[in-house]
Design brief:
alpha/beta; 8-stranded mixed sheet; 6-stranded parallel sheet
């Protein structure tokens, strides 16, 4: 079986979409699928930025010429090279195409697959309607959601990682949305990765350490975390509390100006070699975003044994249970988040109880189970498309 993944973001760009896509293609390859990827060319990716080369995890990756997004240079926007996308489909002859994103590459792939009679599965990872509001453009929210509906209604199935986002798609009139992708790797992210050597190298000592991991972008509301930390540290003896922030993005300069001098900004960290130890070496995870369809970093923190302080909104609401695996706070409420930070720093017994709850939550969300479900989804989608006559049989036959 052959599958072609088409995405507007991939490694080395780090975000929830690129991580889930990378995990998916590696898992499918291990389950016997032949996989290729089309995405933007990344200048720092070496061979992966040139057509027909091997990308991360040894999977064939075709890089489409791209430009940096003006307001966020780490993000690459692929140029609309429809010829390259269709050529890849004709040469690879996939049984199914997965459009992991809704923009340039995803749209080109959707059109090419339609012309060639190849069934398409899509992903809905990001609530772009909410993003429009976060970026100060609420007037375009209706237009964005109309586009999202038009894109996904052409798929035989749409995968989204939470019931909240699935219900959102249903409200838009899409009836083929399925909850999938709410998993975490409990082997990679585990409390055994805790490192006192790392803590000492970061100068954390015995301070109760709060961690944020993710993009430093408007929709993530990292300012709420920083302002809460400013308030919380005033309520505790000096040196009791520390904040570590891992990630980059357009808000970084402003956050550095806002944050106290003892805040550690670590920038981009390697997800496999560095992040597991950082998660496990912290004491709690602080997260203020209300726009998540999943909140992968929240699950990674829980798998690492961290209580989570967060707003139970979007996908996060499906996993955060107040008083069981973390503490729930109101949206953008620095008073309640600061109080939660102080509470955890002062009561270690409660922290231990929440750590145990976080581990139980993560243990029930093993990523390997989600990959088995993904394999089954594709096979059912293919059977459905063939049965409905919405497919060109010759393209399903190996050359």
């Amino acid at each position: 079986m052959r599958i072609l993944y088409c995405t507007d973001t991939y490694l080395p760009q780090i975000n929830g979409v690129s991580i889930v896509t990378a995990l998916s293609v590696a898992g499918l390859r291990d389950r016997g699928w032949e996989v290729r990827i089309i995405g933007p060319a990344y200048p720092s990716a070496g061979a992966a930025s040139r057509p027909e080369q091997t990308g991360p995890a040894g999977i064939a990756y075709r890089g489409i010429r791209s430009l940096p997004l003006p307001i966020y240079s780490d993000v690459r926007i692929a140029l609309p090279d429809s010829r390259a996308v269709e050529q890849e489909m004709r040469e690879f002859r996939p049984d199914i195409v997965h459009c992991a994103t809704e923009f340039v590459v995803g749209q080109l792939a959707m059109r090419a697959a339609s012309r060639l009679g190849i069934p398409v599965v899509t992903s809905y990872h990001t609530n772009f309607g909410q993003y429009a509001t976060a970026y100060g453009l609420p007037v375009i929210r209706t237009t964005v959601e109309r586009y999202i509906r038009a894109f996904h209604e052409r798929a035989v199935a749409t995968l989204t990682p939470s019931d909240v986002s699935r219900q959102h798609l249903t409200a838009l009139g899409l009836d083929r949305a399925h909850r999938w992708g709410c998993g975490v790797d409990p082997v990679r992210f585990h409390p055994r990765n805790r490192s006192n050597v790392l803590r000492q190298s970061l100068g954390l000592g015995t301070a109760f350490t709060l961690l944020y991991v993710g993009r430093l972008a408007p929709e993530k509301q990292v300012e709420t975390v920083v302002r809460s930390y400013i308030s919380a540290r005033k309520l505790l003896p000096p040196g009791t509390l520390r904040l570590v922030i891992a990630g980059t993005g357009p808000r970084e300069a402003g956050l550095r100006r806002l944050a106290p001098s003892d805040t550690l900004f670590l920038g981009h960290l390697d997800r496999e070699r560095e992040l597991p130890a950082l998660y496990a070496s912290a004491d709690a995870f602080a997260f203020a975003s209300c726009t998540e369809t999943l909140g992968l970093v929240v699950l990674e923190a829980m798998a690492s044994g961290l209580p989570v302080i967060a707003t139970p909104a979007g996908g996060v609401a499906e996993h955060l249970v107040d008083g069981v695996n973390g503490l729930a706070v109101s949206p953008m409420d620095t008073v309640s988040m600061a109080a939660a930070m102080v509470r955890l720093a002062r009561f270690p017994d409660q922290v231990r109880a929440l750590q145990a709850g976080a581990l139980r939550t993560a243990a029930a969300l093993d990523w390997s189970d989600e990959l088995n479900r993904l394999d089954a989804v594709y096979r059912r989608a293919l059977d459905s498309a063939v049965g409905a006559g919405n497919i060109t049989p010759t393209l399903l036959t190996a050359p």
